Every structure is written in structure tokens, then in C-alpha cells.
Amino acid sequence: MQLPKYKKKKRIKLKVCQEPGCGREFWGHPIAKYCDLHRDIKQRQKPKKEIENIEAKNIIFRHNYTEVMDLSFKCCLDHCDFDFTVKVFPKQFVYPRFCMEHRNDFKRANFIRIMNKKNRDD
Ligand SMILES: [Zn+2]
Ligand SMILES: [Zn+2]
Description:
Bound molecules: zinc ion
Largest sheet: 2 strands, antiparallel
Oligomer: single chain
Structural class: alpha+beta
Helix content: 10-25%
Strand order of the largest sheet: 1-2
Number of domains: 1
Mean pLDDT: 86
Low-confidence stretches: none
Distance between the termini: 29 Å
Number of helices: 2
Strand content: 15-25%
């Protein structure tokens, strides 16, 4: 993992995701309704099966930060070099595994397919 860069924190509160079956706690703006995953409208109203996969899309990031940080993470998808910014909170260790683009199952599958094809053609 890269050495994190960080910016100044913004005003945030501990909230509970409103998506049925989720109930995850997350840190967000006072008006935020959904956790990081369900903030993407395409992630809502999906079959329960998908919701069980949340773990597969997150990493455990152990840290000792005592204040909120914006850190730069690298997408865990092979061949994707995107950096994405993650808000890191004290005592919270679960964070997205993929860049914004690849948090979408369809786009991730599509990217993998393109990369596999590319590797075959080389
Ligand atoms: Zn949620
Ligand atoms: Zn990515």
C-alpha cells in the first residue's frame, strides 16, 4: 500500500445505512442516508445475494489514526492503477477494495473480461 496522503477533515457523523438488510454503520454527512456501498444508486434494490458479497468488496485496513483522514488507496483490481480517496476513521478498519469505477460489479466484470482478452492477444 502506498504511503497515504491526507487532507483536512470535514464535518461528519456516525450514521446507519437506510438500505433494507444493510444496517451498516458509516461515517457521513449529517444528511447522508446510505453507507459507502449504497450511496451508489445502482447498488440499491439488489437481490439479497449481492448484499452478502459486501465482504468481498472491502479490505481490512489496520491503522492507528486518531482523527479522520482522506487517504489515497489503490484499486485492488488487477491491472487497474486508479487511486481513489477513502475517508479513514479512527477505529474503523473496513474500507472499499476497489476504485469508484470498479465498485460496480458489472464494470468490474467487464474490465476483467477486457484484460483477459488483451492478455490472450498479446
Ligand atoms: Zn448500506
Ligand atoms: Zn479500479
